[in-house]
Amino acid sequence: MTILFDITIIFAVSVVAVLICYRLRIPSSAGFLLAGVLAGPDVLGLVRGVEDIEHLAEIGVVLLLFVIGLEFSLSSIYDMRRQFLTGGTVQMFGTALVVGAGTYLMGSDVAQSAYLGFVVALSSTAIVLKMLQERAELDSPHGRMVLGTLIYQDIAVVPLMLAAPLLAGDSAASGSPSVLVLLARVVGVAAVAFVAYRWAVPWLLFQIARTRNREAFLLGVLTICAGIALLTQQAGLSLALGAFLAGLIISESEYSHQAVGVILPFRDAFMSLFFVSIGMLLDVDFLLSQPARLAALTLGILLIKPVVGAVAALAVGLPVRNAVLAGMSLGQIGEFSLVAMTAAVTAGLLGDDMFQTVLDTAVLSMLLAPAMFAVAPRVAQTLQNTSPASRFGRGSGSARLTVEHPYEEHIIIVGFGVTGRNLARAARTAGIPYAVIEINAEVVRDELQKGEAIHYGDATYEAILHHVEVEKARAIVVVINDPAAARRIVELARRLAPRALIVVRSRYLKEMEALYSLGADEVIADELEISKEVLSSVLARFQEPGPVG
């Protein structure tokens, strides 16, 4: 009865928090965190079984990572190898170096400083991915950079926790046999995952789907998710990483869309429990005993991590604006940092006061994460306009073709995905001159070798648009997965080419009004076009005329 009472209180407080956030136009995750602080034992004391709620909250993280995995594929993960390897390594070790040096100067020994540096380097997978999803930026260049880095961090939690006894001087607990056993378990998980991916999961889902029983399908999907997550946990990896792996396995089957549909309602409910439980972890008494110190530490983290994250994104090849957006997205301390801190306290490497300091700093940084997301576009645009990279260098995206193309009465295509490629092919067939702007350096290199009229660059820079003679363009077509960048490009293009036709592809209907107000002549929303196709197909079945316009 106690846990049911606690859940009722949490959901009730969460509803109020979401309504307030809606009125104030701030992300709901911030409301959930504040609700947790208020309902926790240190403020109003409305929730009694905090540990039980924490266990339920783990389900929210598992389901979030499972859905993220469902929306990706193994090929897309391979495409993010640079973000994962280069970006993740620079962000993780760069942050550890800066933070570790700072804690060493503050009095910690070398082992403690090194461990704390890596702990602080971890960001909140749940908060960041949730907010990127809400802002439709998960497929944007900075979104892919952030996702690759978060996956790297989740994997890095394992060796970090293994290092705690070693750094504490307990060689018996962390000798080579334990490492070899862990490696053997990881290989075993990989082998099981491959078998599940190739044979077991497709066969099982087919057997369930053929019954046309929704309850059986839901239970089957949940069993696969929980089973693989538990398998990875038993191997010493995280539950969240296992859930992401389970989602990737199912994403390769024809049942992935149905799986997303049945999981989403549960994910949203349990994710609210996760954010509330994080808020309840905040020790208000400890915070009030040394507010200046904790505030200074939090602000220091919110300055250091975005800078290092931006440097990591620049190392991957992103321009300044996207690099700043990626860095500020990774600015907070994550939930897995608390897990790693628990391992350090158990091993005797760190004391309880240090644990509480990191915990309160982590919660404060999570509370400020929505504000970081809110100001990130403005900060990114300001730095882009004032940095030297906006005038020269690779970061500005101002790389030019060896042979200049004289453009006039041409089409400018921003983005070279599926839509951009099809448009370029059609223009080439019709004999219409065109120029492509693409931010992916590898795509540009490959297409240049094929003789494509493509330029590396970030079209949010005025210099890049001038480079392709935007003032002489007949039409400008923006087909990218970055809503904020699309708005900036439309604003620039309308000012620089007042007579050109500007067509924009957006993912959601809610983006259309802003794009029209900035000067777009036509906005094509994926949601609307899909609904038209569905309606046309249904009406055609009944031999009725399709929708007009």
Structure characterization notes:
The structure is a single chain. The chain folds into two domains: about 1-45 and about 55-385, Na+/H+ antiporter like fold, CATH 1.20.1530.20; about 395-540, Rossmann fold. The protein is built from 23 helices and six strands. Helix 21 (about 485-495) links the parallel strand 4 (about 475-480) and strand 5 (about 500-505). The longest helix has about 35 residues, at about 350-385. The protein has about 550 residues and is mostly helical. Helices cover about 70% and strands about 5% of the residues. Helix 3 (about 50-70) packs across helix 7 (about 125-135), helix 15 (about 320-330) runs antiparallel to helix 17 and helix 16 (about 335-345) packs antiparallel against helix 17. Strands 3-2-1-4-5-6 form a six-stranded parallel beta sheet, sandwiched between helices.
Produce the secondary structure layout.
Layout: H1 2-24, H2 28-39, H3 50-70, H4 74-79, H5 81-105, H6 110-121, H7 125-134, H8 141-168, H9 176-209, H10 214-234, H11 239-251, H12 256-280, H13 284-289, H14 291-316, H15 320-329, H16 335-347, H17 352-386, E1 411-414, H18 418-430, E2 434-438, H19 441-449, E3 454-456, H20 462-467, E4 475-478, H21 483-496, E5 501-506, H22 512-518, E6 522-525, H23 526-541
Parallel strand pairs: 1-2, 1-4, 2-3, 4-5, 5-6
Helix pairs in contact: 1-2, 2-12, 2-17, 3-7, 3-11, 3-12, 5-6, 5-8, 5-14, 6-8, 6-16, 7-8, 8-15, 8-16, 9-10, 9-11, 10-11, 14-15, 14-17, 15-17, 16-17
